[in-house]
Amino acid sequence: MPELPEVETTRRGIAPHLAGHKILSVSVRQAQLRWPVPTAIRRLKNQPVVSVSRRAKYLLIALPKGHIIIHLGMSGTIRVLPKKLPAAKHDHVDVLLSSGKVLRYTDPRRFGCWLWTTDNPIHHRLLAGLGPEPLTAGFSAAYLCRQSRGKRTPVKPWLMDNKVVVGVGNIYASESLFRAGISPKRRARSLTLDECQKLTVSVKKVLRQSINHGGTTISDFLSAEGRPGHFVQKLQVYDRAGEPCRVCGAPVKKLTQAQRSTFYCPRCQH
User: Which residues are identified as catalytic?
Assistant: First the structure.
């Protein structure tokens, strides 16, 4: 599933092609995604794009009278292509732009969504109640320490809770805990303030590095330019079970937490 760095990479890729241009029309070949694509989106014509932003893993395309809210789901990608390029089987939405390009949404599993709101999108039911953005000052050691008090949940699935902090998915939770030297099996409530400081620093560093490398492509993520993410080459523990730790040489371990695979070094993480 695309995580925060992949969504931010997508936003940066499509923003220059949208902001300052008009949406001439929208063609929906498959309206049944995770939820049906609203009629309001399908009827958009000659609408100038005000801005393209991101909240958590959602892309927000601002128009004069509303916002398009997009989630890439498990396998979704958005690319900017020549309008004459024929659509393939899983190309479900095309947005024709005044530049002559087309914004094409591809989603083989159809777990993503395109939604519409005329209200402030931050108050939409999918976005309301989310935790702070991890790359902002709101995600601090003091904040994380407060949130962890009394929490019996293991720290790794707790860190993936969007009510605690948004966008730290499975890959980046494993990587951040490794770099902070914290075992994913620890209870969240056991974290000290110093450990929370190390963890917030490592989360920010891992996410920024991934964004700078265009995200992480494990299976099918592609940027708006059709390129895979190269942060996969920098992964320290994720998907490396049985391989030697790059720091100490001990075999990387794998366990299942909250139905997700967790990777860690039993020697470096305590």
Answer: 2-3, 57, 260
